[in-house]
Design goal:
Helices cover 49% and strands 15% of the residues. By secondary structure, the protein is α/β, with parallel strands linked by helices. The radius of gyration is 21 Å and the shape is globular.
Length: 317
């Protein structure tokens, strides 16, 4: 397990607990009470830290290297029913954007999402979860296929943003994202969106329009990352914590502003501490959302989705 800077008190107590248990195993000394005291203190420390996280600390948790990624969710929820589909039929297959057909609780879904890598080699292979235009065009192709066969769509968002390279701009990055947003607003099947990690800028919006939009508890969703915001406003990354607070990018902020529909709770410490529970909870939210949407007529489904997004940004003086 890797630890973030604010998790170091937890690491110290877990190390103490390991040493205490080791002494009990290797000697005749009864360390039961000592271990229980450490366990109690460890639980109290975890609750104190994770129940009072700052916006920046939640950003850090969303990027935790042990956190499950899109394929982890798909494989856990769909098992061997997942069939990955490739290519945008125009340029090439984008490894940062994955998609395919799979079943969750017996219901078929078209599953789409950004995929990050686990180590240096796979991070380069997946382009750090930053999709090129062909990735968004592949996603749209799969959504249109789902629409043709009446299959609901589930998207998983986890990206630091769309790839900003020159070649991506040459191939129409902005147009590809804008096209997806337009087509998703009027797609004739239910769309369920789950933000499982980072939800940054247009890279997230390119697959982020949905009838139901959920955020995992320790994720963020914003037009810009705290570091980039800090570098623009203060010409330095040193103010990233201040920027994170000002951007109102946490799940609680997004729910309050009615940008997302609900927050999916995570196990104490984050999704990576108890993956099995995390996957089960996400599956329950997806199934519940689909059951709420499946009986809506197509005109009502589309009208309701458009109305939802039209109301965003309204305010009263």
């Amino acid at each position: 397990m890797e630890y973030l800077d604010f998790e170091l008190p937890i690491k110290e107590l877990e190390d103490q607990l390991d040493k205490c248990e080791l002494i009990g195993q290797e000697s005749d000394v009864d360390v039961t009470n000592t271990c229980k005291q450490i366990e109690k203190k460890l639980e109290e420390t975890k609750r104190k830290i994770y129940k009072n996280l700052t916006a920046w600390q939640r950003v850090q948790l969303s990027r935790h290297p042990n956190r499950p990624y899109t394929l982890d969710y798909i494989n856990a929820l769909c098992g061997d029913t997942f069939l990955e589909l490739f290519g945008d039929r125009g340029f090439k297959d984008d490894k940062a954007m994955i998609g395919g057909l799979g079943k969750i609780d017996g219901q078929s879904f078209m599953l789409i999402g950004q995929q990050k890598g686990y180590n240096t080699k796979t991070r380069q292979y997946r382009n750090f979860g930053m999709a090129n235009p062909e990735g968004y065009r592949k996603a749209l192709r799969l959504m249109k296929m789902a629409e043709k066969f009446g299959i609901p769509v589930v998207t998983f968002i986890d990206t630091p943003g769309a790839y900003p390279g020159l070649e991506a701009e040459e191939r129409g990055q902005g147009e590809a994202i804008a096209r997806n947003i337009l087509e998703m607003t009027r797609l004739k099947v239910p769309i369920i969106v789950v933000i499982v990690g980072e939800g940054a800028s247009g890279g997230a919006l390119g697959i982020g329009v949905g009838d139901k939009v959920f955020m995992m508890e320790n994720t963020w969703y914003s037009v810009i990352s705290p570091e980039s915001c800090s570098s623009i406003l203060w010409k330095s990354w040193e103010y990233k914590e201040q920027a994170a607070e000002a951007l109102k990018l946490t799940s609680a902020d997004m729910k309050k502003q009615k940008i997302v529909d609900d927050i999916i709770p995570e196990p104490l410490g984050g999704a990576h501490y108890d993956r099995e529970t995390t996957f089960k909870t996400v599956g329950q939210y997806i199934t519940k959302a689909y059951n709420e949407l499946k009986d809506l007529s197509t005109p009502k489904l589309v009208a309701q989705r458009m109305d939802k997004y039209s109301k965003m940004g309204e305010f009263k003086e």
